Amino acid sequence: MKLSLMVAISKNGVIGNGPDIPWSAKGEQLLFKAITYNQWLLVGRKTFESMGALPNRKYAV
């Protein structure tokens, strides 16, 4: 089984700020969508509620 971890962190070490991320990440969002397509995602409840279910992905919340 292959397990990968993907985390986006700002220059000052912030991962998120409530439901928002503290930077513009259009390119990173596209990369995330490409890497996670047809894959399992392990996310926290608040993250899942804020982003909703993306198509063609399986979730463990």
TrEMBL record:
Q: Which first-to-last residue range defines the signal peptide? A: none
Q: Which Pfam families does the protein's record reference?
A: DHFR_1
Q: Which CDD domains would you find in this protein's record?
A: DHFR
Identify the residues that the record assigns to the DHFR domain, covering every copy. 2-61
Q: What organism does the UniProt record list as the source?
A: Shigella flexneri
The enzyme's E.C. designation: 1.5.1.3
SUPFAM superfamilies for the chain: Dihydrofolate reductase-like
Q: Which residues form a coiled coil?
A: none
Q: What's this protein's family per the entry? A: Belongs to the dihydrofolate reductase family.
Primary gene name: dfrA1
Q: What is the lineage of its organism?
A: Bacteria, Pseudomonadati, Pseudomonadota, Gammaproteobacteria, Enterobacterales
Query: Which BP terms does GO give this entry?
Result: tetrahydrofolate biosynthetic process
Which InterPro entries does the entry mention?
DHFR-like_dom_sf (IPR024072), DHFR_CS (IPR017925), DHFR_dom (IPR001796)
Q: This chain belongs to which protein, by name? A: dihydrofolate reductase
The superkingdom of the source organism is: Bacteria
Single GO molecular function: dihydrofolate reductase activity
Q: Which UniProt keywords apply?
A: NADP, Oxidoreductase
